[in-house]
From TrEMBL:
Keyword Transmembrane helix among UniProt keywords: yes
Species: Jiella sonneratiae
Polar residues bias: start-end ranges: 363-377
Transmembrane segments: 65-82
Extent of Gly residues compositional bias: 8-21
Gene it is expressed from: hflK
UniProt-recorded name of the protein: Protein HflK
Primary location recorded for the protein, binned into one broad class: membrane
Topology versus the membrane: Single-pass membrane protein
Amino acid sequence: MPWSNQTGNGGWKGSGSGGPWGQRPQGPRPSGGGGNSPDLEDILRRGQDRLRRAMPGGGGGGSSAAGWVLLVLAVAVVLWLFKSVYTVQPDEVGVEMLFGKPKAELSEPGLHFLMWPFETVDTVPVVESQITLGSNQRGDSSGLMLSGDQNIVDVQFAVLYQVDDPKNFLFDVEDPVSMLQQVSESAMREVVGRRPVQDVFRDDRAGIAEEVRKITQDTLNSYQAGIRINAISIEDAAPPSQVADAFDEVQRAEQDEDRFVEEANLYRNQQIGQARGEAAQVREDAAAYKSRVTQEATGEAQRFSSVLAEYQKAPDVTRKRLFLETMEEVLKDSSKVILDRDAAGGQGVVPYLPLGDLDRNAPTRQGGTAGNKGTNN
């Protein structure tokens, strides 16, 4: 070693006050603290002595070299163990590589060992992750898209994805997450560009999200990115801030239109229901009238047939009966009293017959006027 003391008296040759070539260093020494401060050579000498005592063997030449070798080996072993032992977290899987080539099996969560530096490992998260694209904040135009009916809409949507092939995720695409962002945004712009703006606002958000998911998944599969798209959700869709008021007016007008149409449909249904009910009632009344008239006509015909049979058996009796029944029907509400003169003995009106009471009770009588029937023809 340089500056080694062969006489056992410090790091300088000769006495403690001599220099490396047997003479004392010249020049003034800095002072302070009540005494002379050690110079650079003294500091180096003391550090060298401490290191020699710490090494195995106490400081001999061969022993010192062996100690250095053991120290280097110990540090190398510690470093090798540190690089060879790794831990896979519960939400990750590990992909071990031998000379840079990935192995077939994956490392499950837990503690693992590999032969570093020939083997290395990369870990990949396998839980569901989310990225959000677009923004409705003022001044941020990343979510502005042109719809199929030439309207500008600001779309903010989220992509839920999961790594299903860690090897493809690590080695087939340089930056899979960035690629996912670009592909999903491009797919959203493509789908929105084919749809009217009302589909994006409220009419068919679910259909748009599903179509974007399919296009994004097909594109990632063609690049073998190792990513599975679980869902795409349109979180917000709004017009640009510069024309937001005009769009709100249009939305309110469309809502009023829908409300008027619903009210008109309700009124139409009420009127149709009422008309159908009245028509059904008219049909029922007509059917009842038809049945009643038919039955009455049938009964009259049967009665006429029975009367005709009786008339043919006894014409005089039947004729007189018909006459009396007809007169009874005609005169039942009349206030006149007809008497048979011959039945009264030819002497006129019976003096005790209460004709006045009969006349007063005429409106309340039931079944015709009391008295004798008409005379014979």
